[in-house]
Amino acid sequence: MTIGFETWAKDGAARRGRLTLAHGTIETPAFMPVGTAATVKAMRPESVAETGAEILLGNTYHLMLRPTAERIAELGGLHRFMNWNKPILTDSGGFQVMSLAGRRKLDKDGVTFQSHIDGSKHRLTPERSIEIQHLLGSDITMAFDECTPHPATHEQAADSMRLSMKWAARSKEAFTDRPGHTLFGIVQGSVYDDLRRESVEALTGIGFEGYAVGGLAVGEGQEEMFRVLEATTPHLPDDAPRYLMGVGKPGDLVGAVTRGIDMFDCVLPSRSGRTGQAQTRRGPVNLRNARHAADPRPLDADCACPACTGYSRAYLHHLQKADEILGPMLLTWHNLHYYQELMAGLRGAVEAGTLADFAAAFAEQQAAGDIPAL
Ligand SMILES: [Zn+2]
């Protein structure tokens, strides 16, 4: 093992643990804010850390195009480049390249694609993806895979998953072992239980220190996603961290932790913060709505973030309507703070053995909705 992962409490399938990487430790279950282009949009990295985040996600696709992985390596690596000294996980670039419909060509060795920035031609293979993530200096490197589109027939999903398993073996081969740095494999197989099983067997055969569940939150719906998790996580090794990629809404996090997931990433808290939507314990609140225009109350009286302690709903509404930069800044901070609070609550509940009560109280508060208008 080049990284450390220990779990010391369980509640059903949920686990409470700690992951130790080159740049620090992560309490699990954990949520990773997304720093697409070497920045969590509208936040200074110091502020992201203040929300309680212990690890960020960076995007290989965006960074390889601009400013390039080689430039970042020359400047001391991604941690130094963006002034974030805690762990970083990078994706493989596969997901974003595959979603460049009409601008990419898949073959058995990799993908050739055109940049969305200037149309220039690029190529990603398992070996190149791993090399880029090495240049960036990621604590956690992700294997290069094809995210199977949804919906897919059994045959399409099988072909896609088996290609990803070949690429997973090549990713492992290309990965350079360094203390505190690791490579995660990615389970694919769409919504088919037998394919998810086959994928888990292929990956555990290759041997990884962590396992991601990919190809979910692509339009299958929450119920189906939970069903696939129930068919997948019980087969994953107990002693390795499990990461559900690209998920999700607060309710998705609660449900997936209950089903044995340890790590998440999602653009939702930061992206929705930039469009005026706050994620709260009482569900989503749209600050652009006229009902907040004269409301002197805080967004959430029980939230300790700067947006809730210093400002009124009326002010947050005004910033959104006037397109002021401070609006996205404050709401992104609140949303990231709320996500970290939710994860801390989940960790406490798993440790106390009260996860079912926590999940019930969470669902009840979400269903009750926002405080009544004045
Ligand atoms: Zn707040």
Automatic annotation (TrEMBL):
Q: Which domain of life is it from?
A: Bacteria
Q: Does the keyword Zinc-finger apply?
A: no
Question: Which GO biological process entries does UniProt record here?
Answer: tRNA queuosine(34) biosynthetic process
Active site residues of this protein: D91, D265
- What keywords does the record list, in alphabetical order? Glycosyltransferase, Metal-binding, Queuosine biosynthesis, Transferase, tRNA processing, Zinc
Write down the InterPro entries for this protein, in alphabetical order. Answer: ArchSynthase1/Queuine_TRR, TGT, TGT-like_sf, tRNA_ribo_trans-like
- What GO MF annotations does this protein's record show? metal ion binding; tRNA-guanosine(34) queuine transglycosylase activity
Cofactor(s) needed, names only, are: Zn(2+)
Gene Ontology cellular component? cytosol
Listed under catalytic activity are:
7-aminomethyl-7-carbaguanine + guanosine(34) in tRNA = 7-aminomethyl-7-carbaguanosine(34) in tRNA + guanine
Name the top EC class.
transferase
Please name the pathway. Answer: tRNA modification; tRNA-queuosine biosynthesis
Residues binding substrate, per UniProt: D91, S92, G93, G94, F95, D145, Q188, G215
Question: Which PANTHER family does the UniProt record give?
Answer: QUEUINE TRNA-RIBOSYLTRANSFERASE
Q: Which HAMAP family match?
A: Q_tRNA_Tgt
Name this polypeptide is given = Queuine tRNA-ribosyltransferase
Gene name per UniProt: tgt
